[in-house]
Write a structure and sequence with these properties.
- With about 150 residues, the protein is α/β, with parallel strands linked by helices.
- About 20% of the residues lie in helices and about 40% in strands.
- It is built from two helices and eight strands, in the order βββαβββαββ.
- The protein has helices at about 40-50, 100-115, and strands at about 1-15, 20-25, 25-30, 55, 60-65, 75-80, 120, 130-145.
- The strands form two sheets. Strands 1, 2, 3, 6, 7 and 8 form a six-stranded mixed beta sheet that branches.
- Helix 1 packs parallel to helix 2.
- It is globular and about 45 Å long.
Length: about 150
């Protein structure tokens, strides 16, 4: 499982011309599920997102997680293209999980984040979405459960 986590001042997702999800300050998370991912990977990515210390403390150091920074919002967007194989000029998505695997794991991540007291907004799995964000910093972190 992969997640691109961006610290944002605000973020939203638009589907069919209407805002579907919107947050103030917190994280915009693009989440990719690989074909062999399962529950342990979903739980690991939740733990890492919740614990990620990229907000500034009183000394201006990136030392606080969402909770300690007083931020509790996440916009979570499914993003199968995070598993693109780009060895040719036309990406292949063979390693991206099919919906029957990806949707339950995506939903587990949503519920895991909510279980930590976070307000989670989402896109719609498989929809054509326009994601708008105002990056803060900018701070963007790539998480990969194979490396955690």
């Amino acid at each position: 499982m992969r997640a691109v986590v961006t610290r944002v001042k605000s973020a939203s997702v638009v589907i069919d011309g209407a805002v579907h999800g919107q947050i103030g300050g917190g994280f915009l998370v693009l989440l990719g599920v690989r074909d062999d991912d399962s529950t342990p990977q979903a739980d690991k990515i939740v733990d890492r997102i919740v614990g990620l210390r990229v907000f500034e403390d009183e000394n201006g150091k990136m030392n606080l997680n969402l909770e300690k920074a007083g931020r509790n919002e996440v916009l979570l967007i499914s993003q199968f293209t995070l598993f693109a194989d780009c060895r040719s000029r036309r990406p292949a998505f063979i390693r991206a999980a099919r919906p029957d695997t990806a949707i339950p794991l995506y939903e587990r991540v949503i519920e895991g984040l909510r279980a930590h007291g976070l307000h989670v907004e989402t896109g719609v799995f498989g929809a054509d979405m326009q994601v708008i964000s105002q990056n803060d910093g900018p701070v963007t972190i790539l998480l990969d459960t194979d490396e955690l």
